[in-house]
Amino acid sequence: MNALNKSQILVIGAKQMAAICSASPYGFFSGVSASWLNALSYVAIGALTPSAFINVSTSTVAGLNLRFMKYLPANVVQGLSQAQIANISLDALQGLDVSVLTSTQIDAFSDSQLNQLSLGQIASLNAAQVAEIALKH
In the Cβ-directed half-sphere of 134, how many Cα atoms lie within 13 Å? Predict the structure, then answer.
């Protein structure tokens, strides 16, 4: 799959992504590149599963873009590890749905990441998430 070019990656659909996630969640996703993931359509991104995405390396997460994060499904966001969250770039962070994160995940944000959250992202946080920020940062 890594040999596909961006145009080929863009046409991967939801059913194809679901098959990739179920057939090879560990081997493929542990070695996938940020450029490969960033080239996916919003339909394919929406078909990613938490069990597959948890295997994406922190260095790959660091290279993901805002568009990718914007379309990342809530269940995948809820499954992000603290290490993955800590490595989300400041630009990509603008696309992340922070309202679905747990307090533990919120704790993984650096001060720089918290300062980068938009007003809309801050407004979307619940009381427990805001309390976690107040306690830890």
Answer: 8
Residue 1 has pLDDT above 80, yes or no: no
The residue type found at 47 is: A
Long-range contacts of 69-73 (CB under 8 A, 24+ apart): 69/93, 69/94, 69/95, 69/96, 70/95, 70/96, 71/42, 71/45, 71/46, 71/95, 72/45, 72/48, 72/96, 72/97, 73/45, 73/46, 73/48
Structure-token pair, residue 125: 């946080």
Residue predicted with more confidence, 27 or 79 = 79
Cα(101)–Cα(33) distance, integer angstroms: 24
- Spatial contact of 107 and 82, defined as CB atoms under 8 Å apart: yes
Could you tell me the two tokens for 86?
């800590």
Q: What is the pTM of this model?
A: 0.92
Taking the CB of residue 52, how many other CB atoms lie within 10 A of it?
A: 24
Residue 99 gets which letter from DSSP?
G
What is the chain's mean pLDDT, rounded? 94
